[in-house]
């Protein structure tokens, strides 16, 4: 799996997932250092992004056709983007400590990147294949 993992990380989707992981990690560190209690969102999104990166890198979707990977990833991205944007705006408006504001800014960036990931992942943009009957 190492050669396929490296090859996938060079694709657009791989780079976006790596960017999500980095932004979630920065947000987690900043929220953990601040007095806000919103570190759980960043931790959950970090784990989900890492699992999706691992699944796509190891070419797991063709092996598990029971799960519609496109809609699953799209749903993860939309929910994460909305939650990050709302939470980050609440933290930026409500907290005055530097770590909280930095975490809010990284959270907004993560929300924007998750929104972009949802846009490029949208299954209806990628065409349909006929279902076997």
TrEMBL record:
Keyword Coiled coil (UniProt): no
Occurrences of domain MARVEL (ranges): 8-126
Annotated TM spans: 15-34, 40-62, 74-93, 99-119
Main location: membrane
Superkingdom: Eukaryota
InterPro entries linked: Marvel (IPR008253), MARVEL-CKLF_proteins (IPR050578)
Keywords: Membrane, Transmembrane, Transmembrane helix
Membrane protein topology class: Multi-pass membrane protein
Keyword Transmembrane in record: yes
Recorded coiled-coil stretches: none
Intracellular or extracellular location(s): Membrane
Function: May play a role in cell differentiation in the intestinal epithelium.
Name of the protein in its database record: Proteolipid protein 2
Species per Swiss-Prot/TrEMBL record: Dasyornis broadbenti
Taxonomic lineage from the root: Eukaryota, Metazoa, Chordata, Craniata, Vertebrata
């Amino acid at each position: 799996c190492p050669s396929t993992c490296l090859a996938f990380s060079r694709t657009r989707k791989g780079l976006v997932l790596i960017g999500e992981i980095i932004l979630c990690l920065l947000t987690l560190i900043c929220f953990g250092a601040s007095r806000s209690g919103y570190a759980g969102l960043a931790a959950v999104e970090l784990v989900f992004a890492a699992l999706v990166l691992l699944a796509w890198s190891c070419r797991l979707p063709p092996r598990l056709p029971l799960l519609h990977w496109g809609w699953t990833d799209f749903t993860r991205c939309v929910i994460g983007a909305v939650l990050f944007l709302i939470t980050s705006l609440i933290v930026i408006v409500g907290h005055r400590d530097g770590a909280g504001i930095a975490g809010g800014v990284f959270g907004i960036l993560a929300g924007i990147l998750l929104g972009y990931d949802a846009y490029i992942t949208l299954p209806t943009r990628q065409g349909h294949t006929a279902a076997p009957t």
